[in-house]
Amino acid sequence: MPTDESYLIDRSQSGDLAAFNVLVQCYQRQVYNLCLRLLTSAEAAEDATQEAFIAAYRRIDSFRGGNFRAWLLRIAANASYDELRRQRRRPAASLEAAMATGGASQTPSPAAGPEDEALRLELNAHLQEGLATLPSDQRLAVVLRDVQGMSYEEVAEVMRCSVGTVKSRIARGRWRMREYLMAKRELLPRPFRLKDEE
Amino acid sequence: MLEVLARIRHRRTRRQLSPYVDGKLSAQESRRLEEHLAQCRACRDELEELRATVQAMAELPLVEAPRSFALTAAPRRVEALRPAARRLEFGLRAATVAAAFVLAIVAVGDLLGLPGGGEEGNGATVRTMQTAAREAGAPEEAPAPGQVQPSEAAEDKAVTEAPTAPAPATGVQGSTPSLLGGYGEGGQATTATPEPPAGLGGSPEEPVPAQAEAPTPAATAAPAATATPAAIAPPATGPGPAETQEPVTIGPAGLVYVVQPGDTLTALSERFGLSPETIAAANGIAESQPLLAEQKLVIPGAVYHVQPGDTLADIAADFGVPEAVIETANGIAAPGAIGPGQPLAIPGGGALPATQAPSPTAEQPRPTPTAPAVTATPAPVGAQVSPSEPEGQPSLGADERAPAGAEREAPTAEEGGPSRETVVRWLEIGLASGLALLFISWILARRRGWA
Q1: Residue B104, Cα to own-chain centre: how many angstroms?
Q2: pLDDT band at B388 (very low <50, low <70, confident <90, very high)
């Protein structure tokens, strides 16, 4: 796969749009999800994702080896911030709409019963809201680490900072998320409530 | 004591909980943390909550991309330009720095040196203006305005022809007391110019209306300049051949009479309707002093340019001068023979009310050629006159005055103007371009921030 990827990147750098589109297909889900978690609406996430790929294509010459995903996600994060700024300038898209889209498209886990599923959707909505309250650097770090499951090192690569910085951003972001969720614990599924009962 | 230690440990622990969840603590750190957790219920709870939070986020579903984001058309590539863009950016930054530097220098210079320079410039200007005025006016201390005298008049070698100058016919006019006398002497110019500082060519007592009015130096310069043509023109165009015995010419400063053989002060004063004393005073000569042929005398008076509809009687009445005097002075044969634009010498005429007196300086089209009244025959006079002019007053007047005017204006433009205005202008340009450069490089930097 990496060989594949570097070949595709190579082709893309020499102007092969088809090769680049293969890369797009590989990463669009991840890019879109990052944008979705950083932004509040699915629509905005879609725009940001498209912008990110356009920007990536235009700047692909500036990619000189290394972690292509980190490079791409960095572009996506920046596209999201741009989108966020644009959003702030115009009336904010409704958060509910974003949640609806975000929630609707998720696939119910086969094991979960209907009640659990409802609670899960609820929790997801709260998580999304909580993420929106974080400062952007903490949000990006937390999303990359906890939502996307990237390593500290890769997060550091995306954010262009040291691992130590990533560590503290993640810690602070998680702290805030915890506070946010605990403030609404009665709305949350078992893990949070159980603690309460203990 | 223990509590304090515990609190410190507690705080550190909380900071380590997040990396602990990820297994990012060293073995030693983990062991200590676990020791603490074993004793601290609050920290255990916190850890639990943190784990639940992290877990919840990890379970956030990966949403399917709503559509394909594949590009349908290749966007314009930025990257190819990169090296150039980088160079450009570097250049812009350098330019910005340079601009800022220059600005700083200019600003400092403006605060410290330049303003001084500007003032000096102004000072210089003023000085030049004064000098100019002085030169224009009275080179050697001009005697009281009224009494200009051609000290050298006596020596007058000059312009012999002047007397014969036909002037009279058309354009000649009247009476300005001024300086002309001085010019009379051929080469040696201008002895006396009555003019006060103003540099006006005007007559001492009552300068020609226009001159009197002109307040600003610039304005004065103009009149002076225009005056000359008037002086020159009349003789050239209007030398009435025979009829004119009136060698009265209108010089830049007023009316000048070239003494004819046999003239006496008394006779002249009668002819011009003035008292002998007035003429003598205007020329700084004693009444008893005999007049020399070809001596130039300043005749106090005014120059009036005939307006459409004017009659000689009107003009005479306006100036309070007998018609006959005007006729004589101007060599007008028939009462009606005056045309619009024709300059008339009004001996003894004071300034007219501004409304009536068209500024003599105003350059009026000189209808002389066409004017019926003026029977101008470009006769010999032209020849005579021209020689006299170069040496004579007209030319001198022109020479002196024009330059004076020029000097007056030029310095202001170059010294006063530039130092202040140009500096300000350059400051503005510098500021604007500096800001523009800053803005551009900021945008570039922001764009580059991407990758």
Answers
A1: 30
A2: very low
| Minimum distance, in Å, between the CA of residue A37 and any CA atom of chain B | 10
Task: Report the residue of A30, A174, A177 to disrupt the B interface, i.e. the one with the largest count of B CBs within 10 Å.
Answer: A174
Q: Per residue in A35-46, pLDDT tens?
A: 999 987 888 899
* Stated length of chain A: 198
Are A171 and B57 inside 8 Å of each other by CB?
A: no
Q: Do A171 and B71 touch (CB under 8 A)?
A: no
DSSP per-residue string spanning A27-68? HHHHHHHHHHHHSS-HHHHHHHHHHHHHHHHHTGGG--SS-H
Q: Give the model confidence (pLDDT) of A145-157 as tens digits.
A: 999 889 999 999 9
Structural domain harbouring B217: 137-391
Count Cβ–Cβ pairs < 8 Å, chain A vs chain B: 142
Q: Quick one: CA torsion of B94, B100, B101, B106, rounded to 10 degrees?
A: 140
Closest Cβ opposite residue A49 in set B55, B69, B73: B69
Question: Which residues of chain A make contact with B55, given a CB cutoff of 8 A?
Answer: 191
End-of-domain residue from the set A93, A117, A134:
A93
How many domains does chain A contain in total?
Answer: 2
Tell me if chain A has a CB within 8 Å of the CB of B53: yes
B36 contact partners, CB below 8 Å, separation of at least 6: B9, B10, B13, B43
| Residue B67 buriedness (CB in 10 A; 0-12 / 13-18 / 19+) | exposed
Residue A51 and residue A127 share a domain: no
CATH of residue A60: 1.10.1740.10
Answer yes or no: is B162 within a domain: yes
Which class for B84: exposed (0-12), middle (13-18), buried (19 or more C-beta within 10 A)? exposed
Measured in angstroms, the CA of B109 and the nearest CA of chain A are apart by 43
Residue B66 vs residue B228, higher pLDDT? B66
Tell me which chain B residues have a C-beta less than 8 angstroms from the C-beta of A174: 18, 21, 50, 53-54
Residue B258 host element (H or E):
strand B254-258
Residue of A25, A28, A75 to mutate, interface with B, max B Cβ within 10 Å: A28
What are the DSSP calls for B386-448, one per residue? HHHHHHSHHHHHHHHHHHHHHHHHHHIIIIIHIIIIIHHHHHHHHHHHHHHHHHHHHHHHHHH
Note whether B24 contacts A: Cβ–Cβ < 8 A.
Answer: yes
Residue B56 pLDDT > 60: yes
Spell out which residues of chain A touch residue B70, defining contact as CB-CB under 8 Å: 21, 24-25, 28, 53
Tally of structural domains, chain B: 2
Residues of B in contact with A50 (CB under 8 A): 69
Cβ-defined contacts of B445-450 (< 8 Å, 24+): B445/B89, B448/B85, B448/B89, B449/A78, B450/A55, B450/A59, B450/A62, B450/A74, B450/A75, B450/A78
B77 touching A (Cβ < 8 Å): yes
CA distance B426 to A94: 52
Residue ranges with strand state E in B114-209 = none
